[in-house]
UniProtKB/TrEMBL annotation:
Protein name: Hydrogenase formation protein HypD
Organism name: Dehalococcoides mccartyi
Molecular-function GO terms, alphabetical: 4 iron, 4 sulfur cluster binding; carbon monoxide binding; iron ion binding
InterPro entries: Hyd_form_HypD, HypD_1, HypD_2_sf
GO annotation terms (biological process): protein maturation
PANTHER family (UniProt xref): HYDROGENASE MATURATION FACTOR HYPD, HYDROGENASE PROTEIN ASSEMBLY PROTEIN HYPD
Keywords, in A-Z order: Iron, Metal-binding
Domain of life of the source: Bacteria
UniProt similarity note: Belongs to the HypD family.
Amino acid sequence: GNLAALKIMDEVFDICPANWRGIGILPESGLCLKPVFAAFDAEKNFEIKLSEPSRETPGCLCGEIIKGTRTPLECKLFSKVCTPENPVGPCMVSSEGTCAAYYHYGGKLG
C-alpha cells in the first residue's frame, strides 16, 4: 500500500472494536482516533453513542447473508420489499452488495 498514507494512519489511529451492521461488534476490526486527536472525535465531542449493535429491520437476513449462512433467495424481503430502489438492509444498498448482485444477476454468478 501507500507507505506515506499508512504511516499517517498509524500516527492518527488506534485499532479498536467496531460495530458492523448486521454482524455486531467485532474486536480489533475498526479504527479510532488516538487520544492526542480527541478534539476531532465527533463521538466524544457531541456525546454520540455508537456502542450498541445496530438493529436490523425485522425479517432482514443481511447479517446471516454477510456471514454466509443464508442466501438472498432465503430472505422473505428480497425483491419484494427490499429492492435496489428501496433497500432495507446494507446488502442491497451498494451495487457490490450480495443482495444487489443477486437481484441484478439472478443469483447466477459463476
